[in-house]
């Protein structure tokens, strides 16, 4: 399984990524050298949203789609699940 996720950084910016191990990846963003360059200077990050996919191809397509959305639409998606 693959996951597409949205993190909220300490400066309130949003980060979108994909992984095959969501828990491990969020831990990496928060404390590892393997975290994304963008999130390293914006720690701590909080997982706000995730979706699960059976294939990497579908996850990558969804990640790209979410990255093209304006911030307002991303926040609406996050708030929809609350």
Automatic annotation (TrEMBL):
Concerning InterPro entries, the annotation shows: GIY-YIG_endonuc, GIY-YIG_endonuc_sf, UPF0213_domain
Describe the location of the GIY-YIG domain by residue ranges: 1-77
Supply the PROSITE patterns for this chain.
Answer: GIY_YIG (PS50164)
Which Pfam families does this chain map to?
A: GIY-YIG
Domain of life, per UniProt, equals: Bacteria
The similarity annotation says: Belongs to the UPF0213 family.
Name of this chain's protein: GIY-YIG domain-containing protein
Q: What is the lineage of its organism?
A: Bacteria, Candidatus Giovannoniibacteriota
């Amino acid at each position: 399984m693959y996951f597409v996720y949205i993190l909220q950084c300490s400066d309130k910016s949003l980060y979108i990524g994909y992984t095959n191990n969501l828990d491990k990846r969020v831990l990496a963003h928060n404390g590892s050298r393997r975290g994304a360059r963008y999130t390293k200077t914006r720690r701590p990050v909080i997982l706000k949203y995730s979706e699960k996919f059976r294939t990497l191809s579908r996850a990558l397509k969804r990640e790209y789609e979410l990255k093209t959305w304006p911030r307002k639409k991303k926040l609406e998606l996050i708030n929809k699940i609350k």
